[in-house]
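Honest question from a wet-lab person: if I give you the sequences of every part of a complex, can you actually get the arrangement of the whole thing, not just the pieces? Trying it with mine:
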Amino acid sequence: MSSSATAPWKQILLNSISSNSHLKHSIYFQLATVGSNGRPSNRTVVFRGFQDGTDKIQINSDSRSRKIEDLKHCPFAEVCWYFTETWEQFRIHGRVDMIDASNSDPDKLRQREVAWFAGSVRSRLQYLGLTPGLPSLDEQPSNDSLDPSAGPVDAFCLLVLDPEKVDYLNLKSNERLAFSTGRSVNVFFVACWKPPTIQNILFGEYW
Amino acid sequence: MSSSATAPWKQILLNSISSNSHLKHSIYFQLATVGSNGRPSNRTVVFRGFQDGTDKIQINSDSRSRKIEDLKHCPFAEVCWYFTETWEQFRIHGRVDMIDASNSDPDKLRQREVAWFAGSVRSRLQYLGLTPGLPSLDEQPSNDSLDPSAGPVDAFCLLVLDPEKVDYLNLKSNERLAFSTGRSVNVFFVACWKPPTIQNILFGEYW
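Yes, you can. This is the full assembly:
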């Protein structure tokens, strides 16, 4: 979506984040990708904020992780973000830009650097660890240390999801909103769906 | 996985369900599928228990929903189930069997019937509603009623996920267990991974 216009769903999402902010897990969501074998993958990741001045969603990742492999095969992902306090679900579908050390765009490399320093030093240490996904045979924990002023290490990859479609569901009010954008014209089509016959929409049975 | 042997991850999952059972949302998880366009979909669904005597996971669905279309294209799905109280994540990958009214197997139709009656009458009413995924233009809510003793309606579809791989992560103990099964021999390979160097595995950056 355009960086110059704020998507109508963004304020709804910001409100949900705010209403649930007392819960540690409220910034966790599930990210689905497609592997090179054509099968789905799904894992919990941490919301790292919106890219400045845009509606794009940031996620930190290890370049060696399976999802990077998946995204190289298919650059689309779908977020499913359920807020347990307010009973709201956001499904956010879009293309993911992977910004790693090899990126040639100075602006993107700057974004990656900002994301790196936005994380705690402890969280940065993670990227010095073993190859993710492989069991460790080493009995001794490594004693990696990190200069807090040092920039991103090679394994640090910033993922930036650019939403194309957002499906919002509020299980308390029975409100459902579907947002989509024609990328060339940046027009949002907003459909407010009336509550179904029964008061509670049961999860996942309708869609 | 075989119906005659209990998978080693099942007891861990049952413990997690039990430890989090005071939270309404603890039986919700995210189900990722792949659409006919090759892109991922992701939505929250409700755990409807294990199929009797097996490790297979049951989910109720509307035959008209998007995920049924997805599963006809690619029968594999991945569950991501995060327990917010105990900080545990289960990623469960497997093939999904769709049991709808047209199924020719009497045993499967019986399972579908059992699943139908296991739901509340109110939840069953949902399947009499409008086509899912389409906005309603009708101002009047429909007055569908349902005989509580009536069997499953056409739109009711039981999904049964047969796990092939399970990845368990405990963020409190830093324990990670990977289970997989060779389907022909039904042997589980269990790998207990040592904690990484840092104490907290940050979500989704490693995998």
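Two things worth pointing out. The longest strand of chain B covers residues 156-170. The helical segments of chain B are 8-19, 66-73, 106-118, 121-125.
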